[in-house]
């Protein structure tokens, strides 16, 4: 697709990664969050990530960091999104927050705009119901860290059109990524399996079956996983894990998705993982 304007809502870990990957691919990006302080932190994070990438790609021709950053406009107001051709929403995994964001996007954005929810569990069909044209709404579940992960779970809602899927696939292709299309059920494929695994691994620690490091070591050394489930939980953020498991529990009314009490206790204690320096491991 032509290098159009892409709006990115949310300047957290995922939003920063999405904005960076888009800008590196030549897109003009509008990165939105609620305060200039958060946006300044996001700009610093993107600059640091780009410098880190350059260290690992020495000898390769690379664009200058200022040129990439120039493609990102940092905003605290939805008004500029009237010019967006595509919007990727990355706010926290709570329905009430996502609902407010999508209702505002529906008011501001142009009729042709495509809306992608970067969610790990929330129904795309339900989000589509907030838009005047639900055929333009789909899910794009990026993996963390976004610039380094080349595969994206693309979710087709009940009303999502073939044209919308094609537009999303073309955008991903321009970013050097492949989209795998799945149908809309809470958790989709990746998190319907992953969140159960992580939640059960936390039960293992709670029940004193094994220490966190040993649980992860078994998955790395016995199954060849690059990361164990608790390392993965720290990377994603334990608060995000809890929100996702809660959505699955509510959606399916199935006890197998009951959040582990230790997970809830850690989130209540502010132990979120890498994002704030302490989870199952110290960072």
From TrEMBL:
Pathway: Lipid metabolism; butanoate metabolism. InterPro entries: 3-OHacyl-CoA_DH, 3-OHacyl-CoA_DH_NAD-bd, 3HC_DH_C, 6-PGluconate_DH-like_C_sf, 6PGD_dom2, NAD(P)-bd_dom_sf. Coiled coil: none annotated. NAD(+) binds at residues 10-15, 33, 93, 98, 120, 144, 275. GO terms for biological process: fatty acid metabolic process. Keywords: NAD, Oxidoreductase. Gene3D superfamilies: N-(1-d-carboxylethyl)-l-norvaline Dehydrogenase, domain 2 (1.10.1040.10), NAD(P)-binding Rossmann-like Domain (3.40.50.720). Residues 6-184 form the 3-hydroxyacyl-CoA dehydrogenase NAD binding domain. The record marks 141 as: Important for catalytic activity. It comes from the Bacteria. One of its GO terms (molecular function) is oxidoreductase activity, acting on the CH-OH group of donors, NAD or NADP as acceptor. Residues 187-283 form the 3-hydroxyacyl-CoA dehydrogenase C-terminal domain. PANTHER family: 3-HYDROXYACYL-COA DEHYDROGENASE FAMILY PROTEIN (PTHR48075), 3-HYDROXYBUTYRYL-COA DEHYDROGENASE (PTHR48075:SF5). Belongs to the 3-hydroxyacyl-CoA dehydrogenase family. This is 3-hydroxybutyryl-CoA dehydrogenase. The gene is paaH_2.
């Amino acid at each position: 697709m032509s290098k159009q304007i892409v709006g990115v809502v949310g300047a957290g870990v995922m939003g920063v990664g999405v904005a960076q990957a888009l800008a590196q691919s030549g897109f003009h990006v509008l990165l939105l969050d609620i305060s200039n302080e958060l946006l300044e932190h996001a700009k610093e994070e993107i600059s640091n990530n780009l410098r880190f990438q350059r260290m690992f790609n020495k000898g390769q021709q690379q664009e200058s960091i200022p040129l990439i950053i120039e493609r990102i406009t940092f905003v605290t107001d939805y008004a500029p999104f009237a010019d967006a051709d595509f919007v990727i929403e990355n706010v926290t995994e709570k329905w009430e927050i996502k609902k407010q964001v999508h209702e505002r996007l529906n008011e501001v954005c142009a009729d042709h705009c495509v809306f992608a929810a970067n969610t790990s569990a929330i129904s795309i069909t339900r989000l589509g119901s907030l838009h005047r044209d639900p055929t333009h709404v789909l899910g794009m579940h990026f993996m963390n860290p976004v610039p380094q992960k080349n595969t994206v779970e693309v979710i087709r809602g009940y009303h999502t059109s073939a044209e919308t899927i094609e537009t999303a696939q073309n955008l991903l292709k321009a970013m050097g990524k492949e989209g795998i299309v799945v149908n809309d059920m809470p958790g989709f494929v990746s998190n319907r399996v992953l969140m159960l695994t992580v939640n059960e691994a936390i039960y293992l620690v709670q029940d004193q079956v094994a220490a966190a490091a040993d649980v992860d070591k078994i998955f790395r050394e016995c199954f060849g996983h690059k990361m164990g489930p608790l390392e993965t939980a720290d990377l994603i953020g334990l608060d995000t894990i809890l929100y996702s498991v809660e959505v699955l529990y509510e959606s399916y009314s199935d006890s197998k998705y009951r959040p582990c009490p230790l997970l809830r206790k850690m989130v209540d204690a502010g132990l979120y993982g890498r994002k704030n320096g302490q989870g199952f491991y110290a960072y």
